[in-house]
Design a protein that fits this description.
single chain, 245 residues, Rossmann fold, 49% helix, binds S-adenosylmethionine
Length: 245
């Protein structure tokens, strides 16, 4: 009887120890799980914060680059700040990504419109960027390694692009400060650009002005204009020109 009771007590104690060990294991497992979750959340937060900091640094860097370029040559830079993503997206919205061939961008600067074109679905390798500033060209080469970056004058587009175009372009996207040039030179630029593009290709141009930056009278152009993009400094509109007929 005593032995049976002793035996029963021993088994109960062993069960109890097993239960304690199992409970400890469960507590440890729960602790590891919580620690893992905390670590995961912390890593995600750290990544987000450093990405946001990187983007802020890039943006500030681009603003500074622009101001420097504007101080060096205000007429050529044409603006003290890069275009906002809203204006850039509006410009890109007039390019049909399904229409084949290269897309020529003139005056890409630090590349906000270039980014919007890529986000629109135009493969980077289709982009031909013509930029006058050597500093901006170096930056564009870093940022868009698969695009063709041509350092040169967009007002002599055919000559500047000689040897770079293997087929006609599907669109021309321009951020040039056109009003710093006389009307005849602006018209000549657009005519030259159209000679490098397929029929029906758009010439897309933004402006802060209330009037068309490309002279339209007797130019044989069809045109349309967007509403004002207010989320840009200063607000701007986008003109789209096509050859008529
Ligand atoms: C108003 S900024 C626009 C930059 C950028 N696309 C944006 O929207 O922020 C004009 C750009 O055109 C470039 N540019 C001015 N005249 C040029 C020319 N004749 N040929 C090529 N690029 C030119 C300037 O260096 C500058 O980067």
């Amino acid at each position: 009887m005593a032995a049976r009771i002793e035996g029963e007590v021993r088994v109960t104690a062993a069960d109890f120890m097993d239960s304690v060990a199992e409970a400890r294991l469960r507590v440890s497992a729960a602790r590891y799980k919580v620690e893992d979750e905390v670590r995961g959340t912390a890593t995600k937060l750290k990544t987000r914060v450093s990405r946001a900091a990187g983007e802020a640094r890039t943006k500030l860097g681009d603003e500074a680059r622009f101001i420097k370029s504007w101080i060096d040559d205000p007429l050529r830079t044409g603006s003290v700040t890069p275009s906002s993503p809203f204006l850039a997206r509006r410009m890109a919205s007039y390019v049909d990504p399904a229409s084949p061939g290269p897309v020529i961008e003139i005056g890409p600067g630090t590349g906000p419109v270039t980014e919007a074109l890529i986000a629109r679905g135009i493969d980077e390798s289709r982009l031909i960027l013509v930029e006058y500033s050597p500093e901006f060209c170096a930056l564009l080469r870093e940022r868009f390694p698969r695009a063709t970056i041509v350092e040169g004058d967009a007002y002599a587009l055919s000559t500047t692009l000689a040897g770079h175009l293997t087929e006609k372009a599907s669109a021309i996207v321009s951020s040039l400060p056109l009003f710093t040039r006389p009307p005849a030179q602006r018209s000549a630029l657009v005519k030259d650009a159209f000679s490098l593009a397929v029929d029906g290709a758009p010439f897309i141009q933004f402006t802060y002005s209330v009037i068309s930056p490309v002279p339209r009278k007797g130019a044989g152009l069809k045109s349309q204009v967007s509403d004002w993009v207010l989320r840009n400094i200063p607000p701007a509109r986008v003109w789209v020109y096509r050859r008529a007929g």
